[in-house]
Amino acid sequence: MRRLLRRREAAEIAGEVAAAAAVSAPVIVPDLSAAAFFDVDNTMMRGASIYHFARGLASRGLFTTNDLLKFAVGQAWFRIRGNENPEHIARAKEMALAFVAGLKVDDVVHLGEEIYDEVMADRVWAGTRALAQAHLDAGQRVWLVTATPVELARVIAQRLGLTGALGTVAETADGAYTGRLVGDLLHGPAKAEAIRALARREGLDLSRCSAYSDSANDLPMLSLVGHAYAINPDSELREHAREQDWEIRDFRTGRKATMIGLPIAATAGAIAGGIAAGIALRKHYRSVV
Predict the structure, then answer these.
(1) pTM of the model as a whole
(2) How do strand 35-38 and strand 141-149 relate by DSSP bridges?
(3) Which residue from 23, 110, 182, 210 has the fewest beta carbons nearer than 10 Å?
(4) What gap in Å lies between CA 98 and CA 167, rounded to an integer?
(5) β-strands 164-168, 170-173 pairing
(6) Residue 162 near residue 132, CB atoms below 8 Å
(7) Which of 77, 86, 91, 266 is nearest to 187 (CA)?
(8) Please, which pLDDT band fits residue 271 given cuts at 50, 70 and 90?
(9) Is the pLDDT score of 225 beyond 70?
(10) Radius of gyration of the chain (CA)
(11) Residues 6+ apart with CB under 8 A from 214
(12) Pairwise pLDDT comparison (205 vs 99), residue with the higher score
C-alpha cells in the first residue's frame, strides 16, 4: 500500500514539474486590418504552377511527352518575346474553355493535390514561404493571387497553410465545368480589382497591406498596397522597384536564374497550361468512357 502511495506521489510530482517546465506557444493576436498578397509563379514557386500540373498529368500518361515539349516551347517563346497578344490570348482562352467543359471539378482538385505533393512542393521558394509565414505569425491573413485556376490555387494555399487564394474562376454547374469563365482571367488590373473587392469584404486597410510579385504585369496589384515587394523580379519590375524604393528580394541562384523551372509570362502560361491540362483530361475521360 505504501509503495502504491509513493508511486502516486511520484507521479503527481512528475506531472507538476512537467507542467511547470512547459513552454507555452506565444498567442498570436489577430491583425484583422492588414493582409499579404502573393503572386504564385516565380514568386512563391519556381516556374509556372500550371506547367508543373501538366507535367504531373504527363507522368500519369494523360499527356504525351511531345505535347509537353510543344507546351514548354510555347511558354519559352512568350517569355522571350515579352508580350501577350490580346487576340492570341482570346483564342487560347476560348480553346481552353471548350476543352474543360464537362470535366468534374472534384477530379481536377484531386489531381491537383497529388501533383502538388509530387511535383510542386519542392519548387516552393523557402525565402518567399518564410515571408508569408512572417505575416501569419504577425496575425495577418495571407492570400495567393494568381491567374492560375482557382481550384489549383486553393490547393497550393492549403498545402502552404495560407488563408486562401484568389484565382481565375471557371463557371461550374452540377459539379462540372460549363466551358465559360466567371468574369475574366485574373491577370494584371484584374488582380488589383480582386484585392479591392476582398478588402471591402474583409475590412482591410490597403495602406497596411503588403503584396509580392516577380512580374511588371502585377504593378497594379503592387501599387495598390502600402508595402510592395519585388521577388525574383523581371528587369522591368526591378527597375520600377528601384525607382519606387520598394524592397527587392531575389532567391534565385546562377547566372541565368530567370530560366530556372521554365518561368513564363503569367497569363500566357495559365492559358496554355489550361489548354494542355484540358486536352489531357479530355483524352483521359474519353478513353475510360
Answers:
(1) 0.78
(2) parallel
(3) 23
(4) 19
(5) unpaired
(6) yes
(7) 266
(8) very low
(9) yes
(10) 23
(11) 39, 41, 42, 43, 230, 231, 232, 233, 234, 237, 263
(12) 205
Determine the Cα–Cα distance for residues 150 and 152; give it in Å rounded to an integer. Answer: 5
How far is CA 242 from each of CA 127, 214, 230, rounded to the nearest angstrom?
A: 20, 14, 9
Contact (Cβ atoms closer than 8 angstroms) between residue 103 and residue 285: yes
Torsion of CA 51, 56, 59, 61, to 10 degrees: -90
The mean pLDDT value for 24-34 works out to: 81
What is the C-alpha separation between 212 and 216, in angstroms, rounded?
11
Amino acid at 195: I
Residue 179: phi and psi, rounded to 5, are 100, 10
**Span of 83-87, 138-142, 215-219, 247-251 with lowest mean pLDDT:** 83-87
Chain-centre distance of CA 284, in angstroms? 26
Burial letters 29-52, b for 16+ CB under 10 A, else e:
eeeeebbbbbbbbbbbbbbbbbbb
**Using H for helix, E for strand and C for coil, what is the string for 234-259?**
CHHHHHHHHHHCCEEECCCCCCCHHH
Look at residue 1 and give its three-state secondary structure: coil
Task: Tell me how far the alpha carbon of residue 283 is from its chain's centroid.
Answer: 26
Please identify which residue in the block is written with the cell numbers 497553410: 161
Q: DSSP state, 104?
A: B
Using CA atoms, how far apart are residues 117 and 58, in angstroms rounded to an integer? 15
Grid coordinates belonging to 83 = 508580350
Closest CA to 52 of 111, 125, 105: 111
